[in-house]
UniProtKB/TrEMBL annotation:
Native source species: Novosphingobium mangrovi
Highest taxon of the lineage: Bacteria
Keywords recorded for this protein, A-Z: DNA-binding
HTH tetR-type domain ranges (all copies): 9-69
UniProt cross-references to PROSITE patterns, sorted A to Z: HTH_TETR_2
Listed name of the protein: TetR/AcrR family transcriptional regulator
DNA-binding region(s), residue ranges: 32-51
């Protein structure tokens, strides 16, 4: 990458960082391209040269957040064949990723503004959760048929994301040991259901 391309990449990353803070602090509706350009400094043309709309900029923010999340998930699941220990590692990692500050802020943003701006909800889902779900299906499909893998994915993801939602609204937060116990119990139930073939259509 030449110097010009490096400078362009650095400026783009700077814009995304500023936009991330703005979206998280103010919400989607209250964040404007003008305000981001003002915080960035220089002319508005610099911002518009990188992003043609607020929607494009929000997509870049999502991608930035999802990239880190996906790398952590891939590290556990990529090229892995289904096993209970691997499932256990994935569930712990997935829950840890969901409880990171940026993950929570992005989730709250999509929930709060997603009704007024359904495009950001769809953007978030297709760029993030949908990809994670397919990755989990692929993991289960190394041992189960595709239909069963889809059911196991739904059970796994719904349980962990539901537990994350429970944690966010509880006044008394579970300890790390509590979270690990939840994962232990979840994995035991999933493994039992999967091996017994008791999941219904």
């Amino acid at each position: 990458m030449g110097k010009r391309e490096q400078n362009k990449a650095r400026k783009r990353a700077e814009i995304v960082d500023i936009a991330t803070r703005s979206f998280f602090e103010r919400g989607y509706a209250a964040t404007s391209m003008s305000a981001i350009a003002e915080e960035l400094g220089g002319s508005k043309a610099t911002l518009w040269a990188h992003f043609g709309s607020k929607e494009d900029l929000f997509a870049a923010v999502i991608d930035s957040q999802i990239d880190t999340f996906a790398r952590d998930i891939d590290e556990v699941l990529t090229s892995q064949i289904y096993s209970v220990p691997t499932l256990h590692r994935f569930c712990l990692r997935f829950l840890d990723c969901l409880l990171r500050k940026n993950s929570i802020e992005l989730y709250r943003l999509v929930l709060s503004d997603g009704e007024r701006f359904p495009e950001i909800r769809e953007m978030f889902y297709t760029r993030g959760p949908a990809k994670i779900r397919e990755c989990v299906v692929g993991f289960y499909a190394t041992h189960f048929d595709r239909d069963q893998a889809g059911k196991l994915m739904q059970l796994t993801v719904s349980a962990i994301t539901g537990y994350r939602s429970d944690i966010l609204v509880r006044p008394d937060k579970p300890t790390k040991a509590d979270r690990e116990t939840f994962v232990d119990n979840l994995v035991a139930l999933i493994a039992l259901s999967a091996d017994a073939g008791t999941l219904n259509s």
